[in-house]
Specification:
The protein is an alpha/beta fold and about 350 residues long. About 25% of the residues lie in helices and about 30% in strands. Strands 1, 2, 3, 6, 7, 8, 9 and 22 form an eight-stranded mixed β-sheet that branches. Bound molecules: flavin-adenine dinucleotide. Belongs to the ferredoxin--NADP reductase type 2 family.
Length: about 350
């Protein structure tokens, strides 16, 4: 599996041609990439996040999983690493930070798929392994936040240098909030961490580092909920904080709100697929959606008695890819070989070490 060095959003790079596009680098998307290689399909993976692993990485990396066949126990992070190792023989390009936005079927039956950052794919089939949808930052619900977005209100920190010499409030109590507050204090004029309570969900080591930095006078920590933004002209001036003693104002030029991520089916809902309860209806003989050539596997698939389990997604991907083969190579008859008898696969696995 290779992280792809994608061209800038405004480049006119030609479409990336492949047999299958896998949307989602969660456990099911990663296994699908392996299985595609086994049956002789080329594929590319895209994920909206900047890291692989889907829910396993984002929601419970250190929790043990006990129901993966033949692995009595491993953490979610470890499972993702094992899936990456399994994929290695096929060296599948993986495009991170790329949310798939639109699909369009051409007259020749192939699909043109576009991401929000300008990548274009030309594929015979699309494998949606998109879980609950793309993870997007949980945003402030204050109406005054929207016009300030990206200029004074931020949901990520793309460039630390943008905050040099500024006053910054970082809001949140998880790892991202604490890690960014600690990092920004080195360049900002003043950093204040704001969290609803004095307990944190971040790693103990990050909490200890933050408390040391506060004691050393390098940053501030305030308990409170952000209930309003004061704007002057088109710039942020202060936040209104509600806490036990009442409300106070905290002056700041920038607010970085790191409240975690929420899943959003987003653009996939507009693709003309039959969807129930935010999931894509599929035919369980091949996990194909209502649009032939688009498949849905893993948590995003909807059918009677669907179980949102990793092992169910593995099975679904395996069957879906066999049907996808007929779109990529309509003239060929795919001959089934057990992996234990597949000499070419054995060579590839050996070469990958
Ligand atoms: C706390 C917790 C514990 C769990 N424990 C277990 C367990 O013990 N055993 C078990 O079997 N299951 C467990 N699960 C469930 C399991 O994690 C899911 O079934 C599994 O992650 C589904 O995998 P997936 O690949 O289908 O989707 P996900 O893991 O959700 O990955 C989907 C990926 O698709 C990406 N994506 C979505 N939309 C787009 C788009 N438009 N463009 C680009 N990328 C997109 C997302 O960013 C995401 O990375 C647990 C879940 C949780 C939350």
């Amino acid at each position: 599996m290779t992280p792809a060095a994608d061209p800038p959003a405004d480049s006119l790079a030609p479409p990336i041609r492949s047999d299958v596009l896998i949307v989602g680098a969660g456990p099911v998307g990663l296994f699908a990439a392996f299985e595609a290689g086994v049956i002789g399909l080329s594929c590319q993976i895209v994920d909206a996040l900047d890291k692989i692993g889907g829910q396993c990485t984002e929601l419970y990396p250190d929790k043990p999983i006990y129901d993966i066949p033949a692995i009595p126990s491993c953490t979610a992070r470890d499972l993702v690493e094992r899936l990456m190792t399994q994929c290695k023989p096929f060296d599948v390009p993986i495009h991170l930070d790329q949310r798939v936005e639109s699909v369009e079927q051409r007259d020749d039956g192939r699909w043109t798929v576009r991401t929000g950052r300008g990548l274009v794919f030309d594929v015979a089939a699309i494998m949606l392994a998109a879980g609950n949808g793309a993870f997007v930052p949980q945003k402030l619900t204050l109406p005054e936040a929207l016009p300030l977005e990206s200029r004074h209100v931020h949901y990520s920190v793309p460039r630390v240098a943008d905050f040099a010499g500024k006053t910054v409030v970082v809001a949140g109590g998880g790892d991202s909030a604490l890690d960014w507050a600690l990092a920004l204090r080195k360049v900002a004029r003043r950093v204040t961490l704001v969290h609803r309570r004095s307990g944190f969900s971040a790693a103990d080591s990050s909490v200890a580092s933050m408390r040391r930095a506060v004691e050393a006078g390098e940053m501030d920590f305030v308990v409170g909920a952000i209930t309003g933004l004061s704007v002057q002209g088109d710039a942020l001036k202060a936040l209104t904080l509600r806490h036990i003693e009442g409300e106070t104002q905290l002056e700041t030029e920038h607010l970085v709100a790191l409240y975690g991520l929420v899943a959003d089916l987003g653009p996939i809902a507009q693709w003309g697929l039959t969807i129930h309860g935010g999931r894509v209806d599929v035919d369980t003989s091949n996990y194909e959606s209502s649009r032939p050539g688009i498949f849905a596997v893993g948590d995003i698939a909807n059918y009677p008695n669907k179980q949102k389990l990793i092992l169910s997604g593995f099975h679904e991907a395996s069957l879906a890819l066999r049907k996808a083969y007929s779109y990529a190579y309509p003239e060929k008859k795919r001959v089934h070989i057990h992996s234990s008898y597949d000499a070419k696969l054995a060579e590839k696995v050996a070469a990958a070490g």
